[in-house]
Amino acid sequence: MEYYLLLIVYTQMVMSKKILLVDDDRLILEAVSAMLDYYGYDVKTVWRGEKVFETIGEFEPDLILMDVRLSGMDGRMLCKAIKSVNRIQDIPIILISGYGLNPDILHEPGAPNDFVLKPFDIADLLQSIERQLAA
């Protein structure tokens, strides 16, 4: 009973928080989107990096969760481009990747707000998301 009450309270807290999920792997998009939806987030998926700016304008996300390796694009460069636009630079960005990333990237200009290594533990990903949304 306590678990269900906590889940209801948690779901109400995150409800209406919008997450833009960017990955060129459609299976990852489906799985992570379903998981985030389950936890009460409003999720929009984009599988082509070229659509990110357009989707940010339409969807107005509270957070962007983006893969480092996108077909034909580098998520780190896309992150820097987003962080260089005044009206959207404060949207927290969490980069995800199956490849290690130098932790110093988090301190560079235009850096993501956080980094999560794939395969990730769902609890770790949710914790990172919650931390960024609370900041």
TrEMBL record:
Name this protein carries in UniProt: Response regulatory domain-containing protein
List of residues that carry 4-aspartylphosphate: D67
Listed PROSITE patterns: RESPONSE_REGULATORY (PS50110)
Originating organism: Mucilaginibacter gynuensis
Pfam families in UniProt: Response_reg
Lineage: Bacteria, Pseudomonadati, Bacteroidota, Sphingobacteriia, Sphingobacteriales
Keywords: Phosphoprotein
Chain ranges of the Response regulatory domain: 18-133
